[in-house]
Amino acid sequence: MKRTLITNIGLLASPRGISAQAGSAQGQIVKIRNAHVLAEDGLITHVGAGLVGQDKMQGAVVIDAEGKLVTPGLVDAHTHLVFGGWRAHEMQMKLAGVPYLKILEEGGGILSTVRETRAASAGALEEKARAALHEMLRLGTTTCETKSGYGLNLEDEIKQLEVTRSLNGSQPVQLVSTLMAAHAVPEEYRHDRRAYMDLVIQEIIPAAAEKGLADFCDVFCETGVFSAGESREILLAARKHGLGLKIHADELTAIGGSELAGEIGAVSAEHLIAITQTGISALAKGGVIACLLPATSFYLDKPYAPARDMITAGVPVAVATDFNPGSCPGLNLQLCVNLACLKYKMTPEEVLTAVTLNAAAAIGLAEDIGSIEPGKQADLVIWDAPNLDFLCYRFGSNLARAIIKKGRAAAEI
Ligand code: NIG
Ligand code: FE
């Protein structure tokens, strides 16, 4: 048996439970001073305070937290990790005020990344994403969801998903895979969107599900991309193939995405910058997790989603990066912690739940990760911070000092 003992933890802070926490429960954090955590074969078997018994030390690799803050490993519940190229060439257009959806409408944006992703080999995509994961791990992210959606045909969507599969297990960050063939209508179907819908429903979803390459299906429900009706059709087809449902809803315009998420009982609705009160009620009623992406608001210079209204309405809130080459070319979930606190006005405790347990629930892993409790995976971060306030207060520096994944030291900074 492989044992790891993390000792001398100044403050251990963690949410509790195996499901998403909503309302006032989102801000309820267990705090233990002078704590230690024992992991055996990658799972937490003991969380305690005070002196460590000799029995716990036996044969254990000891990691000294040096009196610092320890939290669960961060969970990034929304990224578009596997893509070819970058989009720095859009910077001048962006500065000139050309809107994000206008760039897409003219064949740029997502469609420009589609061209580069199709042209790239699986090997090249994998090495690029591996480098990003290495950076994410060092910033404290131990689990990450990633979406396809830059292939937009059978072959290249499968290529992206296979890259994700190959990365999962061949580096420390655990991955959850989402099929997002409905990320945009590709150029070759510009004049026949129905034919693309049929391709997604009849070929791409069944193939991804049959090969076991995706856990979830996501749709970009947005003006000029997929309508609420089209999104419903795609997501219901995905459900028939056993996939969990996610939806990019109300990112820029409210066209019924949140209402749809509530109606079909999606696991999560993402973005929600433009959500209405009716949309918030629909999420609450449907038990949908709101996955908010503050770095995208920052990068697109858009308003911040009304997180407090959602928490008041009893909607569990998760916070993620949205890492992608267009609307958020950044993968630092620590920055999202700062933004969630300052811009969403969430308390540091609510934010911790948002980037750990609620994020884990948004990707179907709340029973395994997202809190420091016996029975869960030993995924932890030792922070160069004395408490949660400090984590929300400092920004722009990497405060992660050591990252532990499944009981093993995965990175030391
Ligand atoms: O979540 N909104 C749609 N998809 C991504 C952006 C992808 C891109 O611009 O390449 C997002 O913001
Ligand atoms: Fe996204």
Helix content: 25-40%
Alpha plus pi helix count: 16
Which structural class do the helices and strands define?
alpha/beta
Task: Please give the largest β-sheet.
Answer: 8 strands, mixed
Termini, distance in Å?
Answer: 27 Å
How would you name the oligomeric state of the polypeptide chains in this document? single chain
The coarse silhouette is globular
What report would you give on this structure?
The longest helix is centred in the middle third of the chain and has 18 residues, at 193-210. The strands form 2 sheets. Strands 1, 2, 3, 4, 5, 14, 15 and 16 form an 8-stranded mixed sheet that branches. Strands 6-7-8-9-10-11-12-13 form an 8-stranded parallel sheet. The chain has 413 residues and is of the alpha/beta class. α5 packs across α6 (154-167). The chain is built from 16 helices and 16 strands. The model has no long low-confidence stretch (mean pLDDT 97). The protein binds N-(iminomethyl)-L-glutamic acid and fe (iii) ion (FE). Fe (iii) ion (FE) binds next to loops.
Keywords, separated by commas or semicolons:
binds fe (iii) ion; 8-stranded parallel beta sheet; binds N-(iminomethyl)-L-glutamic acid; alpha/beta; 8-stranded mixed beta sheet
Sequence-ordered SSE layout with sheet pairings:
Layout: E1 3-14, E2 30-40, E3 43-49, H1 54-57, E4 60-64, E5 69-72, E6 74-76, H2 91-95, H3 100-105, H4 110-119, H5 122-138, E7 141-147, H6 154-167, E8 174-182, H7 193-210, E9 216-219, H8 228-240, E10 244-249, H9 257-264, E11 268-271, H10 277-286, E12 289-292, H11 294-300, H12 307-312, E13 317-319, H13 333-343, H14 348-355, H15 357-362, E14 380-383, H16 388-393, E15 400-405, E16 408-412
Parallel strand pairs: 1-4, 1-5, 6-7, 7-8, 8-9, 9-10, 10-11, 11-12, 12-13
Antiparallel strand pairs: 1-2, 2-3, 5-14, 14-15, 15-16
This protein binds N-(iminomethyl)-L-glutamic acid and fe (iii) ion.
